[in-house]
Amino acid sequence: GQNIDQPTEMTATEGAIVQINCTYQTSGFNGLFWYQQHAGEAPTFLSYNVLDGLEEKGRFSSFLSRSKGYSYLLLKELQMKDSASYLCAVLDSNYQLIWGAGTKLIIKP
Amino acid sequence: DVKVTQSSRYLVKRTGEKVFLECVQDMDHENMFWYRQDPGLGLRLIYFSYDVKMKEKGDIPEGYSVSREKKERFSLILESASTNQTSMYLCASKTGVGVSDTQYFGPGTRLTVL
């Protein structure tokens, strides 16, 4: 079966760095997405990785290793507004998105 | 900016009622999707549509149907609502051009079935 694993919840301190991991086992791979979802709101796109390596976008970076079935989202200089759930999703061989359950990130002052 | 709107943010219905959830997008996207989101589970695809009048079953279509009569509008129908359909329902759309094209989501409808 297809499976995406992320930690359920993480806590970090304002101004610090946090890494949210995602491991996947899917039938085929056509890329991996990260979305951010604030409580009660719609998910919004953060990043897309299809090649191995690190993609940096401001305070957020996303890493992919296809051979390991692994990705992480790195958030630097954490701000209170970064408190949200972070969703990992993989585009499988049928070009359907398979979603992880999401990681709830709590930022403390 | 892409805008995806859903007809209601909160909805309370009775068991057995027919429920309509509507979604409208303003970016001429070919593809539209209906998901449900439950605590501890990832988004689960109910139905999707890649063109007007076309529909495909997702992972959990049982108890649901959809309608896409116009490109911008995709409706989810619960023929006879049941308590296990209490959930957050999210609509999304994307262009059909590229693999990496992101899905744009509406704000969601929190449906409670009593």
Order of helices and strands of chain A: EEEEEEEEEEE
> Could you describe the largest sheet of chain A, including whether it forms a barrel?
6 strands, mixed
Mean pLDDT of chain B: 93
**Parts with pLDDT < 50 across at least 5 consecutive residues of chain A:** none
- Unreliable runs of chain B, pLDDT <50, ≥5 residues? none
- How does the helix and strand content of chain B classify structurally? mainly beta
Mean pLDDT of chain A: 95
Major sheet of chain B: 7 strands, mixed
Q: Based on CA inertia axes, which overall geometry of chain A fits?
A: globular
What gap, in angstroms, lies between the N and C termini of chain B?
37 Å
What is the CA-based Rg of chain A, rounded?
Answer: 13 Å
| Element-level helix/strand string of chain B | EEEEEEEEEEE
DSSP strand tally of chain A: 11
Shape of chain B: globular
Number of strands of chain B: 11
In helices, the fraction of residues of chain A equals under 10%
Tell me which oligomeric state these chains represent: heterodimer
